[in-house]
Predict the structure.
Amino acid sequence: MNDKTLEEQYVDLVDDKDKVVDQVIRKNIYSPDNTHRVVNIIVVNPNDEVFIGKRTKDRFHYPGRFQDIGGIVESGESYEDSAIKELEQELGITGNLIDLGVFNQRTEVDNSNIATFVLEFDGDLNVDEREFESYNYIRDFELLDNIENKESFFTPATAISLKEYFKYVRTHKVSAPGKIFISGEWGVLRKNNPSVVGAVDNKVKVYVKKSKDSKLDLSIKDFDIENLRGEIKDSKLEFEDELDESRLEHTNYMKNAIETVSNYLEEIEPFSILSAGEKTSIKVNGEVKKFGFGSSAASTVAIISALLRFHSFDINDPKVRDIIYKLSAISNYFAQGKVGSGFDIASSTFGGIISYKRFDPVWLETQLTSQKSIRDIVKENWEDLFIEQMKVLPDMDVLVGWTQKSASTSKMIKELYSWRDQNEETFEDLFDRIASVVNNLIFAWKGNNKERILKYLRLNRNLLSELTQKSGVSIEIDELARLAEIVEGHGGAGKLAGAGGGDIGIAVVFDKETKEKIKKDWKKSGIIPLDTKLYKDGVRSVV
């Protein structure tokens, strides 16, 4: 803390090129017409934790917010001299500063050029408690969460400096949304059948940063897996320690995603990676129960996107999104031993509401079993693949209810195909009708025709009920039928969302009063309403 009064301190005003144009008393710097200089220092300990303090409540600007070390540069001071002074005054330390550059902050009243430095420090601090109400070292991944979700809790200069720091140390957070099938499930298995899929805010988050050595370091929070060490050898990820059957299963998707990216890039830099689900599962009697939001696909998309971001790809670029989608589909082929429909991957990649037709699975499998490289396969135009972004309708609510039962999609698909082989004509007729209903729904959706949207969703539900009865496969089980009937009783459209057999169903309504009545009646019937919202973004990076 500077012991000079605000009347005794003079501050240089600068232009956009950081050239001094005037001097003012410090108390007069805050004006839309004034730009001043600021220093911020990110103090990092050997555990990659960053020093963060909470400003006292009596501070004139940003009281109670979180900040790193920093202050306003006085007239005549260089950025570095000011940074050294602030470190000595606020923490009683000094050291070799790493200069990250000067960054601009422009708000209605606080315009500044912020010089950001990093100090790697291992020692005791002598904190000036006049500056901070409280303080601590915070883990880098936790800070990334806070920057994404609680940026307003930080001073603006600190938020800017932390983002630049994470870019410097190549520490990134990427999140990918889950999915709900709105219409066309089961039908999407057939060539050229359309579907409508929505992204939801039940996300998978992935954090990636430089490894401290030449090894890879893997953690999966949902399965309590921490710091598995390994390295890429002959295009395969080999772990240092032998994994038991449970860990092999739980690392399968991450392992294949890493190998797929490694093969695509041909060479990867060592990294540390952590994945964690957000509202994607629940623990029941110590066992992890998934809701059916496609968390495996979201995890694959998030891991692949994080690794591409780590290797300097712009994951917001539409061309890179296309790469992410294709790499994720390839990765899941290797993880599952078969070609999936890919709708869940598309939803996690592109977000919002999409109209989707799957690629030709025979074509893709032929490519993957040929001598073609993954890079060459990604460059190809994938046969029959169709993805179109549709509007998230502003007055539409999509509720999600959980049956508290789980289902095996792969088992159900095998049963359906077995029935199809004996009843081809009936199968084709049903799937033709499903395709027709979905096409009509897409047309109604594009025209924002609420009555027709509800009509075609109800028809889709009826066809799924008919498929259940004729095939004998437990698609619309009693709980899902009850879920849908409650919704229809309130004038909405309800149906299963996905393969069925359990997991989740949806309600589509256009008024909030109906929404609350449905949730209340679901609870009475043993259906658990989930805290889920449509998510407009696809995969995204915080830094």
Remarks:
- The first helix runs from residue 79 to 90.
